[in-house]
């Protein structure tokens, strides 16, 4: 198997967004509650898990940039290199980024993908095509067939040419290159005073390289105008994953015994909980929360108390089943938050063990599982220590 090349992604975000208007540069304008740049960076982090990412920003925008990074998941933010400052044109900003990659603390990449921060819908398939094309051709850009007829015009003569549409492509980013090729092409163009080229493909072309065009994506829009921001927001909201919240509640009475089961952990107590199964009130509430999020009935409909096979059963079977239902629907459990209501036993000393146990049963990290406890101030059935109650919420993310 050939080793994967070392890849960097340069994200140019130093423009002023004058065509979009609205005060802030467009890459910092909110889209669905977060700066546009946070969406673009997140899309790249998701689509290219191995690549390091170098943002190129304007020197006036450090505060805005930090706010965008703060809106990212920490694991994504950790993948970003220290930003470098861009120049007065896109071309100058790209060159600043390439020079930083060439002279930075880590080895220069073999392949560089150059991407507009203003494009927030770049997915894995597009990045993968870009990478393959750069490896195969050295210089490659994504293009889509144009569907409008394009005219070349002159202000005095009007239309001067109608180029055959079948040969025209609207090109996008990421544009992908062998790093040494595009760095040298940018240096040569700058030295020759050629500083108004609007994409990196044009720079490679100017330097005499054959530039390959691979299939772009119609959805890979560049936010340029104020209308584009509105379209991007609408599209982002339409593509949001299906986030579900489920709730569960359960009660079991105390009876004789020397322990209770809580979240799959045996907790010593001077009484036990009575139930058809092991009466793990916490696991039951969470099972119902997960099934509730899926709108797939409740614990009783999956494991009828009338069925003798569940007599004395370990409740982790029920909970693992509910978690498996989430996975079977292509989803993931985002978090579980549960509260036990009892005077005794004290839950605090067992909390971490219970969280670990629930996390293992559900197949999620323990940091996504919260277990809390409260008394009812000696009021009601829990206050009189006649039984225990548990409440649970689960957030589940399903594919659209
Ligand atoms: N001096 C510049 C100009 C542009 N860009 C970046 O290049 C991408 C594509 O440029 P464009 O959409 O034209 O952005 P702006 O230059 O900001 O827009 P405008 O021309 O409307 O001012 C954007 O992500 C933009 O931030 C850049 O890094 N440095
Ligand atoms: C690089 C680019 O996005 C390819 O379509 C485009 O040329 C950028 O042009 P802009 O005027 O800087 O938006």
Helix and strand arrangement:
Blueprint: E1 7-13, E2 30-31, E3 34-35, H1 36-47, E4 52-57, H2 62-70, H3 74-77, E5 84-85, H4 90-103, E6 111-116, H5 124-137, E7 139-145, E8 152-154, E9 158-161, E10 169-171, E11 175-178, H6 179-191, H7 200-206, E12 212-215, H8 226-238, E13 242-255, E14 259-262, E15 265-268, E16 272-273, H9 281-294, H10 299-302, H11 316-328, E17 332-341, H12 351-362, E18 369-374, H13 380-383, E19 387-398
Parallel strand pairs: 1-4, 1-6, 4-5, 7-12, 17-18
Antiparallel strand pairs: 2-3, 6-11, 7-10, 7-11, 8-9, 13-16, 13-19, 14-15, 17-19
CATH structural class of the largest domain: Alpha Beta
Between the first and last Cα atoms, what is the distance in angstroms?
Answer: 35 Å
CATH topology of the largest domain: the name is Spore Coat Polysaccharide Biosynthesis Protein SpsA, Chain A
Strand content: 25-35%
Name the poorly predicted regions. Answer: none
Mean residue pLDDT: 95
Compounds present? cytidine-5'-triphosphate, ligand LQXTBERG
The CATH architecture of the largest domain is: Alpha-Beta Complex
CATH level-4 homologous superfamily of the largest domain: Spore Coat Polysaccharide Biosynthesis Protein SpsA, Chain A
Using the alpha-carbon principal axes, give the shape. elongated
As for the number of domains, it is 2
Main sheet makeup: 8 strands, mixed
Structural class comes to alpha/beta
Number of strands: 19
| Count of alpha/pi helices | 13
Radius of gyration: 29 Å
Approximately how much helix is present in the residues?
Answer: 25-40%
């Amino acid at each position: 198997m050939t080793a994967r090349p070392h890849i960097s992604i340069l994200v140019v975000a130093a423009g002023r967004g004058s065509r979009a208007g609205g005060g802030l540069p467009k890459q910092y304008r909110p889209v669905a509650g977060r700066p546009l740049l946070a969406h673009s960076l997140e899309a790249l982090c998701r689509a290219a898990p191995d690549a390091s990412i170098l943002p190129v920003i304007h020197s006036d925008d450090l505060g805005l940039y930090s706010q965008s990074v703060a809106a990212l998941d920490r694991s994504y933010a950790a993948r970003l290199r220290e930003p470098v400052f861009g120049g007065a044109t896109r071309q100058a900003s790209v060159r600043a980024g390439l020079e930083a990659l060439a002279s930075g603390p880590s080895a220069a990449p073999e392949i560089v993908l150059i991407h507009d921060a203003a494009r927030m819908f770049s997915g894995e398939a597009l990045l993968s095509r870009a990478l393959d094309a750069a490896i195969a051709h050295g210089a490659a850009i994504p293009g889509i067939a144009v569907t409008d007829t394009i005219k070349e015009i002159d202000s005095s003569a009007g239309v001067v040419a109608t180029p055959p549409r079948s040969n025209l492509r609207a090109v996008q980013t990421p544009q992908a290159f062998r790093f040494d090729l595009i760095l040298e092409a940018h240096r040569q163009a700058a030295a020759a005073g050629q500083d108004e080229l609007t994409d990196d493909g044009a720079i490679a072309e100017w330097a005499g390289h054959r530039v390959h065009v691979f299939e772009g994506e119609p959805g890979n829009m560049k936010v340029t105008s104020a209308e584009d921001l509105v379209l991007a927001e609408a599209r982002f909201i339409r593509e949001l994953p299906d986030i579900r919240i489920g709730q569960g509640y359960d009660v079991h009475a105390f009876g004789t015994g020397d322990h209770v089961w809580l979240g799959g952990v045996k907790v010593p107590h001077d009484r036990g909980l009575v139930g058809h199964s092991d009466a793990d009130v916490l696991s039951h509430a969470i099972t119902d929360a997960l099934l509730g999020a899926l709108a797939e009935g409740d614990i009783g409909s999956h494991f009828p108390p009338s069925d003798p096979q569940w007599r004395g059963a370990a409740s982790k079977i029920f909970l693992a089943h509910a978690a498996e239902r989430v996975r079977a629907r292509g989803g993931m459990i985002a978090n579980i938050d549960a509260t036990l209501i009892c005077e005794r036993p004290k839950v605090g000393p067992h909390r971490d063990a219970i969280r670990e146990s629930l996390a293992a049963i559900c197949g999620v990290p323990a940091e996504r599982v919260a277990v809390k406890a409260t008394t009812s101030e000696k009021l009601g059935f829990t206050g009189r220590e006649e039984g225990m109650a548990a409440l649970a919420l689960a957030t589940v993310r399903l594919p659209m």
